[in-house]
Fold this protein.
Amino acid sequence: MPDKFYLTTPIYYVNARPHIGHAYTTVAADTLARHKRLLGHDTYFLTGTDEHGQKIGRSAAAAGIAPQQFADEVSATFRDLWKRMGISYDQYIRTTDAKHQRGVQKLFAALYERGQIYLDSYTGQYSIGEEMFIEGPPGTIGPDGKPTETITEENFYFRLSAFQKPLIDLIESNQLEITPEARKNEVLSFLRGNIAEGSETLLSDTGIAYVPGALKDLSVSRTSFDWGIPVPSPAADTTEQKHVIYVWLDALTNYMTAVGYGDDSEEGREMFARFWPADLHFVGKEIVRFHCVYWPAFLLAAGLPLPKKIVAHGWLLFEESKMSKSRGNIVRSETILDAFGSLKPDAEKYEQDLFGADVLRYFLLREISFGQDGSFSFDALVARYNSDLANGYGNLVSRTLKMIEQNFDSVVPESGLTTELTADITIAIETMRTALDRQEFTVAVAASAALVATTDGYLTANAPWKLAKDPTQRDRLAAVLRTAAKAIRIVTALLYPVMPYTASRVWTQLGLGSIERAAELGELTDLTHGGFAPNTRLGLLAPIFPRAEKELITTMNDAEVKPPATEAAEAEQQPAADPNTPANLAEGEQPLTPLSDAPAPAAEAPAKPDTPEITIDDFIKVDLRVARVLVAERIPKADKLLRLEVDLGYEKRQILAGIAQFYEPEKLIGRKVVIVANLAPRKLRGLESQGMIVAASIGDGTPALASFIEDIEIGARLK
Ligand code: ME8
């Protein structure tokens, strides 16, 4: 009996309705859940909504309704969408559920009783969007691109600092597995701290140096608002103020409360023993730190088992930047369900939705390399649909089945089963299943597309339409069509976790009945066995993937009404730029005069600089452009340099910047910067630097990267 498999998506904030970024994670998890169920695992798939915290409280206030009602309404839009899309979750958890709140209070109390939480007071800069304290002067621009607010709070603190080495050891040894590797390294580099010249270091179990004390204790309660779970006794009895539990401690705990933590009934205890620890948490890359540092630390501190694996995917970009409501570059899944559903005018509404959902599922998993950022566009969606599904899989199914209908009276021919394509089929099964087990969705779906292409090639090479005209070739015709039908059966079973609705339609047309039933009976577990029973009669044939015309692109574009820029009320996750540590410049380079409105530290007025006057013609020679950091990494043996790859929209560049002592590379990824784009290239440490990053020089020369409050598109020129 295969093991149990418990997998989760992040629980989504209810400050805004879902967009296809949320669908992306959910679809990936749903596909994996279906795959695991097919293989017979005792699978449990959890999703839900994150409903507490200041961000939600403020959104509710802006909407003029009570937070609970606001959460109810937005949470329902997620559930409704998942229903339309046929998402097969086993539980939809809400952090306002009473059982969740009980579980969170139980964890808080357990941590307090174990001495892992203590009371202290703190004044600092608080990012409302990120729900976290940030180091920096007042008005620092937070990771969400908005100024922080000064907040003094008496808070409960969690002894996160005590878990620096245990976490490093667990992650380095893969007991806590993090993929992809880049995300694992990002977490490790955060945990190890900034190793500067002369800093005191210790060694992890695998012999890697880290800076002790780099991981600070974490504030885990708030008093400035009350939309959250109250801190329970006995901790609550030690303070006059009313504290609510930090929203991330609340939210992360959902993964346990969903499976019985905090439910002391026999049923609750059994469920917890059956499913905890989670086998896999899917997350977007911006919330890796919460899942790979805070969450395991809370669990270690409470003496509970850790999740086995955290898989972080990249971002869906639309019009070059991360899809988010505040940027107005949102694509809703509903737009795609409606548009593709319209290709099936005779189907019931729920079937139109499931069909549209399958198209979206296929596209997201096939087109966007899992783990990396990928651009979404309606053009690409329609192009991929037509090439892979209408012309590829759909056409293969319809031409094979039509020939069986015409030549064998709709009965899958029995004679002449050949061994042709057997090797290709075996490879497709192995590649697809191994890739799904590794969450390499792109590889998995490509394997099914490869088998479609091979089978198509097989038909073209054997030209059954010619064989059909020659009565002496009847056996050969039977063999060719049976072989093709066999390959289609396998492709369809393989695609079932990816496109459950269309796979079930093809399965019926193949005369195999209900694929859901076959799956339940375990008939899809070992695909090398089984097949067509004698005299299998095809079902009713009908086109599966009608061709999509160009107008569909216009329809979808028109459906996405862009909100005005002022509707930028929503805070969304960004790669955490470090607001405390501005920075830049290649080694030895002079910083330019500040070009951004980055806040200068409060100090006496600076002396007027004695720089020579230039004309506008001189200035215009400097080509300053906005670029996005795609890659940021340290350079071995160069303490000060970071190697960056930036995207200017029209091209990508490598830039070496002397900011390694001020910025952690992973915090720069995704950030927009200003570069001098027409600076002559030069070599530093054997690497070519193709430009320079612009920064203000503050205090004793600490650089602060130029940035904008507005969302500027990459490639934009500063003049
Ligand atoms: O972070 N591309 O909720 P959230 C890809 N409540 N994935 C995207 C995306 C995009 N453009 N936009 C969103 C939270 N996502 C917390 C989580 S978990 C204990 C608490 C997906 O509503 C992706 O999975 O901001 C990302 O991590 C998640 O939605 C963020 O959802």
